[in-house]
């Protein structure tokens, strides 16, 4: 079973969590080269082509057109013709057993920090008095101009 490789749902962008398999470009039994178009995946933002990360033979399609799958989900199995169908079935079954039946969601509220802050700002200076409440020092040369 070590000769079996997987093609997985890629992560295109920081916010991508899942994708919809829109179209297969190759069929079971087809050989493909590295960089060849494998399938088309639609996300909430784009529709893009998944290119083969390695060369091989597509032996088993796991995901069907229209399936919505999380990032990292197995789309297909790749193996040489020497690998039996029974080995592919066993490998696919082990993948299904390893994946959770339903997506895990957080049910508890996030923890709220209750510790005192490590930085306490210094008290603000006394606000400046509004205009007209303070006397501004005036030079001796400016006094005659002010009196006019």
From TrEMBL:
Superkingdom of origin organism: Bacteria
Pfam families with a match to the protein in the record: Biotin_lipoyl
Cofactors (names): (R)-lipoate
Transferase in keyword set: yes
EC numbers: 2.3.1.12
GO biological process entries: pyruvate decarboxylation to acetyl-CoA
UniProt keyword Transferase, yes or no: yes
The protein's name: Dihydrolipoamide acetyltransferase component (E2) of acetoin dehydrogenase complex
Taxonomic lineage of the native organism: Bacteria, Pseudomonadati, Pseudomonadota, Gammaproteobacteria, Enterobacterales
